[in-house]
Structure formats: C-alpha cells, structure tokens
Amino acid sequence: MSTLKKKSKIYSVMSQKGGVGKTTLAINLAVQSTLQGNKALIIDIDPQASATTWGDIRDSNAKYPLVISSFAARLSNVIQAAQQNNINEIFIDTPPHSQRDAQIAAEISDKIVIPCRPNLFDLHAIDNTIGLAQIAGKPFVIVFNAIHHTSSLSIEAKEAISNKYKDNIDICPYMIVQRLCYVHAITSGQGVQEYEPKGKAMLEIGHVYKYINKHEDK
C-alpha cells in the first residue's frame, strides 16, 4: 500500500475487459476536469498507449490535461512529481487483463471508475474489476457506456447489477450514449466538449464528471 501524502484527487478508470471505452472515458473526464478549472493529468499505464497517442496529436496550445506514459510500478513517483507541480486531478488509464497493474492503481486511487457496456460479456467481466476495488478498499462507481439511444438494455443491466450486489453498489445515473463525435474527437486530439461544445455528449460527460466527484471534498 502506498504511503503517498495525497494532495490530488486520483481516479483510476478501470476494466479487466478490453473494448469497454475505458480510454475514451478517461480522456473526456480529464478534459472536463480541465474545463472546470483544474490542472488535470492522465497517467497512461496501458501498454496500448492510446491516451498517450491522443496526447501526442493534441493541439500544443492546450496545456491541460497533461498526458504521461508510465508503468504501474512508477505510479507513486509520477504522482509525487505531479503534486509538486500543482496537478490537482489525476486520471489513471489502466490496462485490461493485468490484475497486478490494476491492483497497484486501485490502491493509490481515491475512487475507481468502472466503464461497462450493457451486454452479457461485460456484465460477467465486471465482477473481476469490482473485486479489485473491494480488495483495495476503495469506493467505485460503474458508468454505463456506449448505450444505444433506443435500447432498454442499460435499464436491464442496471437492474441485474443492483440485484446481484444489493445496496453495495454505486451506479452512475447518467449514461454515455454511443455517438460518432466521441470517435471524431479522439482522432482529432480533443475531448467531445471541445469538438462539439454545444453537443449532447458534452452534457453527458459533464454529468458523469460531476457525479463521480460528488463525495470528494478535499
């Protein structure tokens, strides 16, 4: 367990299953944090380095969020350096299929954000990620992602998880709809808030960001 003296809010965006939109969510939450006036940082410990690639193509005039590619074993060092440079919100983009790295990130985080698509495979896989959060003793919130706007699957998925975990679960009431603007924004080095400043996706991310911050009074 890390002995870091916390000065920043630290969130791990985590899923032990790939293809759930983890990196896209981490990026857009970090952009939203920046728009809220924070000095935000994305720490990319996923070997695919998708968040790092996004940072590389981002407009050099957009100072925040910063993006740093690192390893789980160096998270404490990177976070200490970030805190010394007045970074006050950190989003860790974790790798799928790597329980050890995810556990290190979970232990150093204040909260774990778990994206989940409303389908059978994702709902089964989410147990592993919830287990990591519980072992670390950290609060976590599930965010349903890539929802089809005409589908009722998100409601059914929410009921299935709620019934399984009873009252010991936090599910974000705001869901992220599958929209092309998320893809276009990422490929242009932007958040959806910057790509479509008056779009519905901007509102979605804003609501999700506000919700995951709801009990973070630091």
Automatic annotation (TrEMBL):
Domain of life per record: Bacteria
Pfam families, sorted: AAA_31
PANTHER family, A to Z: COBQ_COBB_MIND_PARA NUCLEOTIDE BINDING DOMAIN-CONTAINING PROTEIN, P-LOOP CONTAINING NUCLEOSIDE TRIPHOSPHATE HYDROLASE
InterPro entries given in the database record: AAA_dom, DNA_Partitioning_ATPase, P-loop_NTPase
Organism: Candidatus Dojkabacteria bacterium
Annotated ranges, domain AAA: 9-86
Protein name: ParA family protein
